[in-house]
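Predict the holo structure. Ligand: zinc ion.
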Amino acid sequence: MSPRKAKPKGKGKRDITHDDERELSTSNESIEEHDDGIFVVRKISGSTSNKPYRCPGCDQVIPMATPHTVAWLEHDQSGRRHWHNICWSKRNLRKPKVERTRSAPRY
Ligand SMILES: [Zn+2]
């Protein structure tokens, strides 16, 4: 059980609360490099999934108690998303044809 408190006040100042760290320091976490950034990927086992989430990959609900994947950009933990395992792996395979924002702006 991880009590999810309201966001600590103050954006832009990076202070990582110990609560967050504890919540995230699990062994089933890994780092994946994608075109759009470095993702932290965490495998959720069904037993710890106690509410339904909507998968951004297929726009379907992940039912409760379903093993799935949580991923977020390493610097944007608040933007984490819950994915079906299959959707996440498909995402990895797919080379998205969206225009990529490269670091250099094009003029
Ligand atoms: Zn899905």
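The two ends are 49 Å apart (CA to CA). The longest strand covers residues 37-44.
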